[in-house]
Amino acid sequence: MSQKYNKLYASIIVAVCTVSILASSLIFNSSIANNIIKYFPILEKTKTSTPFKFNEFVNADTLYTLGTSWIEINLKSHTGTLHQKYEKNYIFRISAGTEKISEGIETPEGIFLIRSKLKKTYSKQFDSTLLINWMGFSNGVGFHALSGNGYYYNLGKRNSSHGCIRVTKDDSAIIYDRVSLGTPVIVSKEGSAISVNFVDSTDTYAYLSKSKLESEISRRLDLLYEGKYYSEQKEKLVIDTKNIGHSGISIGEVDKIPEKQIIPKK
Description:
By secondary structure, the protein is α/β, with parallel strands linked by helices. It is 21% helix and 26% strand.
């Protein structure tokens, strides 16, 4: 075959592939925009991942992410864990928000999503302070490092920020590189009644609109508190920036969960 026909053949293949990708994208986005329950298989084959290590709190509901990472923040131990689908978990020290300083607030608890990323930005509220590797997740609250090292003293020890989660410059660079817009973030003091896991290419998941997701999670938490969580089969729910808002969703109340759940007889 001549070089001329080789180029023509290659151009046709690229055009067909591009049209197929665009069509698939439009179908998926349309299903989300319609805010209806939509079952969809995750068709893309994934590499064999390391075993997922569940957090320390048992008897929790689970939400699923299409991404390859999610972050868990423990405000009590002043630590964070970057859960990764293909690599080992990465643990880092933090210093969260406190009301003990002027204009300070406690870092909110809940389930959020990374909504903005900037290598450098400036805080208009606090004297144009330079924020390095900014990752915002809740109404102006986010992860970041600062230009100096003086704040390192409080990391892993006590809350000292105006509401954000401070980390070292090295940790912020690693986290920034490994998360994306839509990465889930769970922030809690005593633990969350809801955890996050990664989708499996061989399984099927459901997508709910924001209002339906909140209603369904509330219903599931009630079952969890009553010890009846396993009384029915439940859809595996996918979360993203379209069904979780800037204010996040509740993590539930861990102290309401009984030690044992009732397992129905077959």
